Amino acid sequence: MTTDTQAQEQTDGFNLVIDALKLNGIDTIFGLPGIPITDLTRKIQAAGMRMISFRHEQNAGNAAAIAGFLTQKPGICLTVSAPGFLNGLTALTNATTNCFPMILISGSSEREIVDLQQGDYEEMDQLAIAKPLCKAAFRVLNAEDIGIGIARAIRAAVSGRPGGVYLDLPAKLFSQSMDAAAGKASLIKVVDPAPRQIPAPDAVQRALNLLKTAKRPLIVLGKGAAYAQADADIRALVEKTGIPYLPMSMAKGLLPDNHKQSAAAARSYVLPEADVVVLIGARLNWLLSHGKGKTWGGKDHKAWGSQKYVQIDISPQEADSNVRIDAPVVGDIGSCVSAMLGAINAAGAGWPQPSADWLGAIDERKTKNIAKMAETLAKNPSPMNFHSALNVMRDVIKANPDAMLVNEGANALDFTRSIVDMYRPRKRLDVGTWGVMGIGMGFAVAAAVVSGQPVIAVEGDSAFGFSGMEVETICRYNLPVCVVVMNNNGVYKGTDVNPTGGPDVAPTVFVKGARYDKMMEAFGGVGVHATTPAELRKAVEEAVRSRKPTLINAVIDETAGTESGRITSLNPTAAKKK
Ligand code: ADP
Ligand code: TZD
Ligand code: MG
């Protein structure tokens, strides 16, 4: 090549976006093509990246979000303008709410037309709409700024408290050309995108001093602890201190659920009784009853108001959000836990262990509750109920601890969480902080793509409906996903009736005896109709073994569920009755 042609070699916005993402180690994009990004999706694939195309942007967005959670790299979702962008926005907001790192990249219409509201194709001021719903939002107008735009988006998504970032790329940007060498030089490989945040030594000391005084300490592990990938140190902290722990839903498996220090089966005993609670990557939000109320013993409980908290979190603003935090430790969980562990190791046998009284009282409750559960699980009613079906799922996960478990629904969620034990970190993926329906198939696709492991998605029949069309995506990419639809004919249960006697069914009721298994068969996957635990067991085991896309329609007693599952108290009708 002569110097002359080199000087003329050009690149464009398409290539710069792809090169910038690749340069930062991003190898998979989740999205849905259309104007103005169709060619971008083709070029992504041509560049050797994996382009996973979905049937609805919300599912692509959920896939990106959970890929971010699993990998600590921002998951990327790519959409078209206005309606595609809005479809992706729910997932972006959900990612931010859950502290998952994700970048929603949407094509958009031209600024000149949008700003004068002249009615462009899919016109919308996307940046303004995204801004309040995510951690950061950027727009790139010039090809030479693509490198900076993507670098800023990556840093914003993964540094500090992770979250969702919006990146607006107007259509004109993609065709802008510039000198290839200058383009290459404009890209940024982000150095240290999620810098460690070392806790202040005095904050660590304050926490340790408080912990030393505890008679009835408790550790609560949240999904931030799972995200942090500090598994060995977290386990060492729990085991060296001998403190009982409670895993939040997505922290299940961080230590195996059958660990002797797990207090999950004695939750309602330990929350009010603990005198010092150590929160590790868990917020005191509604999922922990805001640290107040009956869950924590209520105002009449002897410990009311005297409980003390240590909170390990990367966000300096999290402490005191619901109750006073006596010892906040601000930093990344890896650094915080290792700092605490250093002091505990140094103390050796001098580090106080929780009293035998406390541990004994917990064990007593645990043993009783586990025995009661075993009795329920052993029953074999006809039709199947949640317990007899989930007893099967419990065995399957035990035999396949590396399988990923996706879970949504109300009863289908709550029963699975309490019945199916997890044994490895970051294997349980669910509705998270919002309790949102619709994460199922997006999470399942990403879990399969990212981990290569078999995925089992336990879905309420209503929950499944929000993303059910993605069974085509699962078949198209031939992913090892087994969807189990817990089919109780409706939302919570299938027995409601229209009080007027009119022809419309009740709002919570679906078509009775629906055959969701046929949906998977329509796209070449395996469909199974299971009416007994034995049929369910055979089908799930075969799905995990064969890795074929499978959907099992598990017929559940339509009277088995309760309204709102375990969160009936949040239902305004129930609250009024209280
Ligand atoms: P859960 O729902 O499991 O209780 P939450 O989503 O409420 O968990 O809480 C997660 C917390 O973890 C958030 O407050 C977030 O700031 C924090 N977090 C996330 N990643 C890290 C990290 N690497 N280090 C420290 N804290 C983190
Ligand atoms: N819409 C969205 C996006 N999220 C929600 N959480 C709801 C609606 C309300 N909702 C729940 O909180 S659970 C649920 C809905 C509609 C479905 C429950 O029915 P299911 O589960 O069939 O999935 P069970 O096993 O029948 O209880
Ligand atoms: Mg249902």
Determine the number of helices (DSSP H or I, runs of at least 4 residues): 24
The major beta sheet can be summarized as: 6 strands, parallel
Percent strand: 15-25%
CATH class of the largest domain: Alpha Beta
* Count of distinct strands: 19
The distinct bound ligands, ions and cofactors come out as: adenosine-5'-diphosphate, ligand TZD, magnesium ion
Q: Uncertain spans, ≥5 residues at pLDDT below 50?
A: none
Total number of distinct structural domains: 3
Q: What proportion of the residues is helical, as a percent range?
A: 40-55%
Overall pLDDT score = 96
Radius of gyration: 25 Å
Shape: globular
Order of strands in the sheet with most strands? 3-2-4-5-7-6
- From the coordinates shown, what is the CATH architecture of the largest domain? 3-Layer(aba) Sandwich
Coarse structural class: alpha/beta
**Span from first to last CA?**
81 Å
CATH topology of the largest domain: Rossmann fold
The CATH superfamily name of the largest domain is Thiamin diphosphate (ThDP)-binding fold, Pyr/PP domains
Can you summarize this structure?
By secondary structure, this protein is of the alpha/beta class. 41% of the residues lie in helices and 16% in strands.
Structural write-up:
With 578 residues, the chain is of the alpha/beta class. The protein has 24 helices and 19 strands. The strands form four sheets. Strands 3-2-4-5-7-6 form a six-stranded parallel beta sheet, sandwiched between helices. Helix 8 links the parallel strand 6 and strand 7. The mean pLDDT is 96. The structure holds adenosine-5'-diphosphate, ligand TZD and magnesium ion (MG). Magnesium ion binds next to helix 20.
